[in-house]
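Forwarding the complex inputs:
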Amino acid sequence: MAGGLFAGIDIGGTKISVVIASDDGRVLGRSRRKSKPERGFDGVMARVVETVDEACADAGVARATLTAAGVGAPSPILPDGTAVSAVNMGWTNVPLGQALRERLGMPTFAENDCNVGTYGEYAFAKPRRRGTLVGLFMGTGLGGGIVLNGTILRGDNALAGEVGHMTVVPDGRPCVCGKRGCLEAYSSKTGLAYEFKEAIVLQRKPSVLPSMLDEGGLDNVKSSILRRAWEEKDEVTRVALRRAARYLGIGAGNLITLLAPTTVVLGGGVMDALGEQLLPLIRESASEHAFPSASFRSASIELAALGDDAVALGAVAYADHCLS
Amino acid sequence: MAGGLFAGIDIGGTKISVVIASDDGRVLGRSRRKSKPERGFDGVMARVVETVDEACADAGVARATLTAAGVGAPSPILPDGTAVSAVNMGWTNVPLGQALRERLGMPTFAENDCNVGTYGEYAFAKPRRRGTLVGLFMGTGLGGGIVLNGTILRGDNALAGEVGHMTVVPDGRPCVCGKRGCLEAYSSKTGLAYEFKEAIVLQRKPSVLPSMLDEGGLDNVKSSILRRAWEEKDEVTRVALRRAARYLGIGAGNLITLLAPTTVVLGGGVMDALGEQLLPLIRESASEHAFPSASFRSASIELAALGDDAVALGAVAYADHCLS
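Prediction (whole assembly, two chains):
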């Protein structure tokens, strides 16, 4: 470990979250701002710097005393820090790592958000865990990361780990990526929106959901609202979430069959809100779909321990790793 | 490379094939026998030793002058050489590596047949290839192997790479493993048998296949017969093989999406016989199902170069690697 304090930066389509943390994951300060991607790449970069400075103030440290920064963003990231394609941010091939290195004046390491989220679980949640760790993050989309003996698996073009776009239903539902039958089309808020519209709008089934919605409508129901509707035993919500859990279990089962990991961690907004409710369903489906049974028995499927801080703290662990 | 000559042993449900080869893959001698698994583990071991001695005689060398032996077998193999479960051989937890080490009197390294088949492509077919290589072998079943920066990916319990049992159709066709919708249930001779029975027996479609069959019947049509029926433009055969190719492309696309490999090689009996005919269909399907498109463009899908010798030569490369 490199020692000292790090900024961990989580850039998402809605918000920027920053933690100031030590190399063992202790959080000394934090800050959060809306990301406002409509202001363009430079606008978002300026807001990141402001958020880092606010987090430094919260921690009572000067930015210049930080050792390095780690950044997680919703895009494949090349080794030189280029963000290849962040649909939610409107970015194509932007120099994310370089831009923040220059603006923050410190070593800065950018990676895909789900990759660093998985890396954070590896480094902080169970620091003695070795071998293969798979992370699945169910939020607006379905992202994944693979850490193999302490290294993020990037594949030969830095684009590996796109678990959400593995085909689980040939000729299945349309996915936002343009393909059909992707895991993300079933196990994500996008998949839930598809179910909600079918049940509530087309089939006119009764549901408490419409009365709870804010400006996101059925297209992007907040995780907290999903939880409320689940707790009110809303059948439309429960059927949709059970199906999402079943498909996430198919995805987890397939990754166990292929990679024989020790642990699969489940994170992301939907899991943060409804993890205890969905975990048994996901485990049951993974057990049904994994082969051979010895692989399933030797893999544990758990909720991510870092919760909402997964990406920001993972970015701290990743920056520390890059310097070591 | 360790230097000297190696025995490469391919143990299958039907036959044992042995090559005597140098560490750069040059074959000096070979032999082949039926494996006769009904004679039990010791019976098969005795036949392996006889086949090795015949191959040595063919090469004009004494067994005692060999550096080491590599063994590929249709089972997950633990690091200590235990074959966990070889359904075709009737083996459960047999000490394969140790038994042959004692009987052959030389260092002997056992591995899963598709793992060494992929390793052989890595080591001999394109020896300067680096990064990630995925092998898919379509024969009686559908096996796979992953070589990552020169090392076979085994996962945390030596059971990784079971590509054929990833679920591609939820609630789909029954698979021999007891699950449903496995890739192997679509892209293998077992999958073809399912199609043939449905078309010829249930739907009574005309086909040249029944007139060509030997004792295997529709359950295990020889690859050479598949090829003859394809060349005679038999529609039942072509429809079934096109579907098998489409699903193999889904599997290849999913592995490209997840692992971002440089190369996917396609081998096994069906591909050895019909590779030129099926390759364009597999590529088209993989292109349709892989994400993001940059990953597909940077991966090439090719026929395995070592053909029928893939496992035996791969076992040579693997033994050499273990000694180095």
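The radius of gyration of chain A is 19 Å.
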